Amino acid sequence: MNQLTLFNPDEYYRFPEELLEYTADFLDEKKAGKLLQKLMDATPWKKDKNIQKTYDKEVRAPRLTAWYGDGSKSYHLGGNEFMVNQWSPELLNLKKKIEKATGYHFNTALLNLYRDGNDSAAWKRDKESELGDCPVLASVNLGQVRDFDFRKFDDRKKKYSLPLQHGSLLIMKGGLQIHWEHRMSKSENIQEPGINITFRMIREISEIRE
Question: Phi/psi at 89 (nearest 5 deg)?
Answer without folding.
Answer: -55, -40
